[in-house]
Design brief:
Structural class of chain A: mainly beta
Structural class of chain B: mainly beta
Shape of chain A: globular
Helix content of chain A: under 10%
Largest sheet of chain B: 7 strands, mixed
Order of helices and strands of chain A: EEEEEEEEEEE
Strand content of chain B: over 45%
Strand content of chain A: over 45%
Shape of chain B: globular
Radius of gyration of chain B: 13 Å
Oligomer: heterodimer
Order of helices and strands of chain B: EEEEEEEEEEE
Largest interface: A-B, 25 and 27 residues
Number of helices of chain A: 0
Distance between the termini of chain A: 41 Å
Largest sheet of chain A: 6 strands, mixed
Number of helices of chain B: 0
Chain lengths: ~110, ~110
């Protein structure tokens, strides 16, 4: 079936530490996996995506890892800053040809100063 | 920096009434989407739109919903006869050719059905 879920609803980290947000997915046929950030009162903001034929992709201060064997996706944020406090959603794009994106339940990241 | 805009920011309507939510996607984008988010819950896909037709829709997007691109800049979501459970934040998003899944979201319209 189509479902994307998150291991933890909240994550609290100290400013400057690295954050790791995890996600499990169930649809093996998805083309892309994506991470979005949503700040309070705003729409989701694209962070990074990874194609299903890749294991790792790096962006600015973020790294996404994809483990297809265990259907696991993670987002690593280096040197977490107060501005990183938000809800993070993983999402997947089933290979249905219609550009559908399925979001997971979200993890709230708190950054302690 | 170009951005997706949505109007109104908040819409209050009575059950059974029709509402139209409006969006102006980023000008060079070709793919358009509507999502909804019930308070405190995850973002749910409603519909994707490309080349003046629906590409895919979810089970939420029933006959009460329709989308339209009436001109070269606007993209609208119409709910024909609103129900209490339609109360949610509705987000429009757009993306460009070659980066389909790098979607840019608008600030949302909060729809309250009373």
């Amino acid at each position: 079936g189509e479902s994307v879920g998150l291991h933890l609803p909240t994550l609290s980290v100290q400013e400057g530490d690295n954050s790791i947000i995890n996600c499990a997915y169930s649809n093996s046929a998805s083309d892309y996996f994506i991470w979005y950030k949503q700040e309070s009162g705003k729409g989701p903001q694209f962070i990074i995506d990874i194609r299903s034929n890749m294991d790792k992709r790096q962006g600015q201060r973020v790294t996404v890892l994809l483990n297809k064997t265990v259907k696991h996706l993670s987002l690593q944020i280096a040197a977490t800053q107060p501005g990183d406090s938000a809800v993070y959603f993983c999402a997947e794009t089933p290979n249905t040809g219609g550009f559908k994106t399925i979001f997971g339940a979200g993890t709230r990241l708190f950054v302690k100063a | 920096e170009p951005e997706v805009t949505q109007t109104p920011s908040h819409q209050v309507t009575q059950m059974g009434q029709e509402v139209i939510l409006r969006c102006v996607p980023i000008s060079n984008h070709l793919y358009f989407y509507w999502y909804r988010q019930i308070l405190g819950q995850k973002v749910e896909f409603l519909v994707s739109f490309y080349n003046n037709e629906i590409s895919e829709k979810s089970e939420i997007f029933d006959d009460q919903f329709s989308v339209e691109r009436p001109d070269g800049s606007n993209f609208t979501l119409k709910i024909r006869s609103t129900k209490l459970e339609d109360s949610a934040m509705y987000f429009c998003a757009s993306s460009e050719q070659g980066a389909l899944y790098e979607q840019y979201f608008g600030p949302g319209t909060r729809l309250t059905v009373t």
